[in-house]
Amino acid sequence: MGASEDVGCSGFGTRDRQRTDDHAGHHHGVEGLVTTDADRTYLGVAFGLIVTFMVFEVVAAVASHSLALLADAGHMLTDASALGAAIWALTLAARPASAVWTFGLRRAEILAAAANGVTLAVMAALVAYDAVGRLAHPPHVEGTMLVIVATVGVAVNLAATLVLARANRQSLNVEGAFRHVVTDLYGFVATAVAGVAVVGFGLRRADPVASLVVVALMARAAWQLLSSSGRILLQGTPDHVDLATVRRHMVELPGVVAVHELHAWTLSSQLPVLTAHVVVSDDCIADGGSAKLLDRLQDCLAGHFDVAHSTFQLEPEGHLEHERHGHS
Q1: Separation between Cα atoms, residue 280 and residue 314, nearest integer Å
Q2: pTM, whole model, 2 decimals?
Q3: How confident is the model at residue 261 (pLDDT cuts 50, 70, 90)?
Q4: Residue 32 Rama label (left phi>0; alpha psi -120 to 50; beta)
Q5: Alpha helices, DSSP H only, in the chain?
Q6: What is the DSSP secondary-structure string of 139-167?
Q7: Cα separation, 37 vs 326, whole angstroms
Q8: Where do runs of H (alpha helix) occur along 202-237?
């Protein structure tokens, strides 16, 4: 997309002239990028599976007088809450924009993802604390019941994982719910192995050792969710957007003199946004090429950097000296 393609601001090809003729019909809104109803259905199925297993685990805990199983049922309640929050966030994100919420409630998905990251971190800390205590003083563990419940847990969480894997995991909200279920799957696999070790070899410390392995996986998932959601909430530049490269592409377009006040951030996990003040040559404005240039700028960002929502303030060269620069 170098300057050699065209000479002067008005030097656009037939395709560009046609696009300019249609510019009045362009809609640079943000719809079409939200999570689909199918994803809400996948989350609902996973939620149903987790709640059903949680009830089964409570019954098993009462029947076997197992405090450990009852505690794990509480853990499953946390997972069910995480899935419920994800579904609620999808419902909010699907609401249309309004005069108050001009971008809608897209960020609800990011808040839910951050909440899932926090709950994973808290759970990891609590499980680690309990596991260290059990390493020092290993309690009696009913290995057979551990194997049975863990095996059912593996089956349920594997089914929930397969269901959620079909959803759009580019949504950080969906990814957060997926991470919750996957860490549970790992946890039940580790618990089943620990149960076999207890039954077959009498290794009572196998259970806390397996728990610490799961803690490491939970901590890793929590960090990934919190770092990704934090970058979006703090309006950091998207990973795939290099502002220096964006600026170079924009300046290479015919008619562009300079670019300043260049900002890029992510509104939600699927919606990068970019704004800029674009200084345009006086000749470009005089020959009526501003609309054509605007099309080229938007096409450049959408084609090269996958930024579908961009806003530009076009300024004549003489206006540059009146700008109060807050950013380069």
Answers
A1: 6
A2: 0.78
A3: very high
A4: left
A5: 14-21, 37-64, 67-93, 107-136, 143-165, 172-201, 206-233, 243-252, 282-286, 290-305
A6: PP--HHHHHHHHHHHHHHHHHHHHHHHTS
A7: 42
A8: 206-233
Give the distance from CA 269 to its chain's centroid: 5
Give me the DSSP letters along 85-111: HHHHHHHHHTSPP-SSSTTTTTHHHHH
Give strand pairing partners of 276: 312
User: What average pLDDT does the structure give for the chain?
Assistant: 83
Taking only the tens place, the pLDDT of each residue in 23-62 is: 444 444 444 444 468 999 999 999 999 999 999 888 877 7
Domains with residue ranges and CATH for the chain: 3-30+237-318 (3.30.70.1350), 37-233 (1.20.1510.10)
Region of 238 (left: φ > 0; alpha: ψ -120 to 50; beta: rest) is beta
pLDDT surpasses 90 at 242: yes
Phi, psi of 106 (to 5 degrees): -60, -35
Of 316, 47, 62, which Cα lies nearest the Cα of 178?
47
pLDDT digits over 161-189, tens only? Answer: 999 999 999 899 999 999 989 988 998 89
CB neighbour class for 275 (10 Å; exposed up to 12, middle 13-18, buried from 19): middle
| Residue for token pair 């998207």 | 238
Distance of CA 18 to the CA centre of its chain: 37
Beta-strand relationship, 271-280 and 309-316: parallel
Closest CA to 264 of 232, 290, 236, 289: 236
pLDDT attached to residue 32: 42
At 95, which amino acid appears?
R
